Amino acid sequence: MFRTAELGRTVSKEEFERLADPLRIELLDLQQKLLSADFPVIVLFAGVDKAGKGESINLITEWLDPRWIVTRAYGPPSDEERERPEFWRYWRDLPAKGQVGLFLSSWYSRPFMERAIGTLDLPAFDEALERVTAFERTLADDGALILKFWMHLGKDAQRKRLKALEKDPLQSWRVTPTDWEHWHRYDSFIHAAERLIQRTSILPAQWHIVEGLDERYRSVTVLKALRDSIRRHLSQRAAVKAVATMPAVDVDEAAEPAAALTSGNPADQNVSEQVDAALLELEAGLPSVLQTLDMSLDLSKKDYERDLAVEQGRLALLARRARLAGVSTVLVFEGWDAAGKGGAIRRLTGALDARNFQVVPVAAPTDEEGAQHYLWRFWRHISRSGRFTIFDRSWYGRVLVERVEGYATHSEWHRAYTEIRDFEEQLIDHGMVVCKFWLHITPEEQFARFQAREAIAFKRWKLTAEDWRNREKWALYEEAVNEMVEQTSTSLLPWTLVEANHKRHARVKILRTVCEALEKRLGKEKDKDKSGHH
Amino acid sequence: MFRTAELGRTVSKEEFERLADPLRIELLDLQQKLLSADFPVIVLFAGVDKAGKGESINLITEWLDPRWIVTRAYGPPSDEERERPEFWRYWRDLPAKGQVGLFLSSWYSRPFMERAIGTLDLPAFDEALERVTAFERTLADDGALILKFWMHLGKDAQRKRLKALEKDPLQSWRVTPTDWEHWHRYDSFIHAAERLIQRTSILPAQWHIVEGLDERYRSVTVLKALRDSIRRHLSQRAAVKAVATMPAVDVDEAAEPAAALTSGNPADQNVSEQVDAALLELEAGLPSVLQTLDMSLDLSKKDYERDLAVEQGRLALLARRARLAGVSTVLVFEGWDAAGKGGAIRRLTGALDARNFQVVPVAAPTDEEGAQHYLWRFWRHISRSGRFTIFDRSWYGRVLVERVEGYATHSEWHRAYTEIRDFEEQLIDHGMVVCKFWLHITPEEQFARFQAREAIAFKRWKLTAEDWRNREKWALYEEAVNEMVEQTSTSLLPWTLVEANHKRHARVKILRTVCEALEKRLGKEKDKDKSGHH
C-alpha cells in the first residue's frame, strides 16, 4: 500500500516555480467561488511524523486567504471535552459552508495511536473506525467535501529526517523523544495505518497517500489534489443545482462533475490550462512504481531450464498438499498486451493436475454477466476448496481498461477499490491463497513483440488494431496501474510486479512467488493440525 | 421499535377486494416496465416465525408474472457452499437486471439466529452486520433496488398463532418443535432483531417493519411498499438518464424520483389513481400508535398536587445525585402545538437548580447554524457532565415538520433516522440519560385550546396562523410521528408517548418517567462504585 509512496519522487525548484504562480492564482479563485458555495471543505492530515503534515497546512494557509480557513489540532481532551461524547469537539470545530477546515490531527488520531501502541484491540479499533466512517458519511451526504491525506515516509527516510533535524541547530527542537519512540514502533504504526486506510477509504472520503520525502513534490501533490477536488465538487454541486431545476428532482442526490458546468470564464480557463500544462509536464517526469523495476533481469537458458524444472516440481507437490488440506488458490494475471501472461500461465498449469485447476480468460462480459454487478462474473468462478483458479485478466479491469477507456464512470471505478478490497478480503478470510501479478514490459519491448507477431503469420491473429491503439494510452494506463497498486496492495494481498522484458526471468519469478505463498499458507495449515483444531 | 407493529391493524375483506384488482394491474404493469429497466429488485423477508414471510412470497409470486421472479431460501450451507466464502451463494443467486428476487431467508439468517440463541458475541455480530451492509451498499451503488421486510408478531400473538395452527388438522404440520423453541427465546430474538435493524437500516436499504397479525393488512403493506418503491426507483433511474443527457454528467449518481418523469401514460395513471384512492381510504381507517393511547387519563386536582410535590422532590434529590455522579440528562420534548410542552418543562425546571440546567427552545436555525449540518446546532448544546439539557422541540424536526412541510428532501429526512440513532447512541454510550417525550392531544382538544388562546388576550400572541394551517396537515403529521416512533424507539432509547389532553396527568407522567430513568442510571452508577471501577 505504501510502496508507491517510497519511490523517491522529487520536484525541481524550476518545475515548482513554473507551477506555483498559476496554481496559486487558481486556488485563490476557487476559494472565492467556495465563499458562495453551499458546502464546507474538510482537509485532514495524518501519517508518519515529520512527513510534512504541518508544513502542508502552513503552505495552504499561506497560499489561500486565511480569513476563510480554520485550522484545528487536538491534544488529549480537556475536561470540558472529556465530559461530552468524543465527537462533540469535532462537531463543534467543523468549518461552515464556504470555509476550509484544516485538521492537523482529527477523529483518527486517538484510535490510530492507541492501536499503533497496542492499547486498543482489533475489534475495538474497527468499531472506532466504523464510527468515523459514519461521521464522514453524514457530512458527505450533506454535501461536505472531505479530503484526507496520509503523509508517508519509509522507515529509513524517517530516521534520516529525524537525524537531519537534530543536526540543524534551528530545527533540533522539533525532534522530541516521542518522535524516536514512534520511530521504533514504525512497523506497528504502518500495520495499523494500513488497516485504517482500508477501512475508512470510502468513496466520499478516500485517502490520498502522499510521499513525504521531498517538500516540493509533497506540496505539489497536496495542492493539486486540493485544486482538483474543489473544482470537481464545485461543478458537481453546480450539476446538482441544474438537476434540481428539473421538475421534482431532489437536490441532495449528486450528479457527477459536468465539465460543461464548471464556470467557464475565459480568464479562469486560461490559468487552469497553464496549471494543467505545468502539471502534465511535471508528472511526466515522475517515476511510477513500474519504473522502479529492474527491467534487465534475465536468466540464461541453462539456469532457466534448471529453475523451471525445480519450481514446477515444487509447485506440483505443494498443489497436492493444498488439495489434501482443502486450500484453494486464486491467481490474478494482469499486465500490458504481449507481456507474456499466456506463456506464464502455461508454465504454471504445466505443473498442475488438469482436474485441479481452471483458467478463466476474462473478455467482454456475456449477456448474462452484463445483467449483473460486475463482480458477479468473478464470484461465480470461485472454485471449491483445494483447487486453483487462474484469472487471465480479472476484476481489476474495472480500474484499468474500464477506467482508461471511460467504460466505467469516475465513481464506478473509484468505488471499485473498496469493492475489490472487500471481495479479496473475503477470499483471504476463507483461507484461500491469493497472488496478484502485474507483468511489466517497456514500450520498446512491446513494440518489438508486436512487430514479431506481425512477422510470424501464425501469431498474427494475436495482434489486433486495439493493441496498437492502446500503446498511445500508455501513460494513462501507467497512472492507473500506479493507483491500483497504491489502493489494493496490502501486506496480506500484495501485488507482485514482474519484470517481464525477459520471459525466462518472469516465468520463474511467478512460479517461485506462487510456491512461496503456498508454503507460507500450508505451513500455517500444518501448525493448525499440530495445535489440533482445524 | 416494534411497538408500532403491535397495533392490531386489520383490513376488511371488502377493503382488500376494492384494492386488489387495480393494485394487481399496476404491479403487473410495473413488472413489465422492470423488464427493460437497468436494475434488479431484491426483496427479502425476515422476522418472527409464522408472521407471514412465506405467505407474502407466495402472494407476490401469484400476483406477478412468475417468469421474471426468482425465489430463494437457504438452509445450512451445502459442502459445495461451505468450501467457498459465505457470500458466494448469495452472489450466485442474485436476480439479473429486470428481474425480481424474493429471499425467504438471506444473508441475515445466520448471524441473526446465532446471535439470538447466543452463540455469536456482540462484536462478531456487529462485524457480520458490517459485511452485510457493505454487500448491500455494493449492490445499491450499482443501481439495485433493495426492499427489506421485517415481519413482526407480538409474543402473545405468536403463541396464539402457533396454537391455532396446531389445532387446525390441515395446518398442524406447519408447527415444528423449533417454532416453540424459538418462541421461548422470543425476548432474545427481539433483542437481536432490534440491533440488526438499527445497524443495517441504511438509506439505500431500509427495513420496513410489518405487523404480521392480520393476513390482509400484511399483504397490503408489503404490496404497497413493493409498488411504491418500484415506482420511485423507476422514475429515479429515468431521472438519472435525463441527467445523463446533460453534458458529461455521470449516470451512476442518482437523482431523486421526478414525479414528472414517471411514465405518464393515462391508462397507468388511471389505475395508479384508483390504487392511491383505495389506499388512502384504507389507511385513514388504520390506527397509528397515537390512537392506542387512553386520552381520558386524568388526575384530580388533589391527587395532582400531591403527586407533583412528590415527584418534584424526588427529582430534586436525583438531580443532586446525578450532579455528583457527573451523569448528564438530555430531555427531548416534541408534540402537537398547544400540547403543553412549555408547562410540562416548567414543572420540571421548578425542581432543578438554575445553575444545573438549560432549556433549548428550537426555532428556525440561525445563520451560523444554517451554514452547518443540521445536527451541528444540537451537538453544540450538549452540556457538561451532571447537567440537564432540555430541548423544547429537537433534531426530530427533521423527520416531522421538515418532512411534512417539504423543507427536507425525501432522502434528507430518510437519512435522518440513521443519523439520529447514531447521535443518540453516542449520548447513551457516554453515560447520559436520554428521555424523549411526544405530547399527544386530540384534534378536538387542540381546537379548544386554540380558541381559548384567542379568547385570553395575554395568550393570544401564542396563536399564529401557522397553528391553524398545521391542523389541516394533522394526518400527515400523524403518519410522520408513527414512522418516527417505529424508526427511533428502541429499548435503550424509548419514546414516551404522553396522553396530554389532561395536563395534570401529562405533567406527572413526565416527571415520573424522568425520575425512573435517573434512578435506573444512578443505580448502575452505585453498583459501579461498589464494584470499585468508575
UniProtKB/TrEMBL annotation, chains A, B:
Native organism: Rhodospirillum rubrum (strain ATCC 11170 / ATH 1.1.1 / DSM 467 / LMG 4362 / NCIMB 8255 / S1)
Documented EC number(s): 2.7.4.-
Enzyme class, UniProt record, top EC level: transferase
Signal peptide as annotated in the record: none
Transmembrane segments: none
Keywords, in A-Z order: Transferase
SUPFAM superfamilies: P-loop containing nucleoside triphosphate hydrolases
Name of the protein in its database record: Polyphosphate:AMP phosphotransferase
Origin organism lineage: Bacteria, Pseudomonadati, Pseudomonadota, Alphaproteobacteria, Rhodospirillales
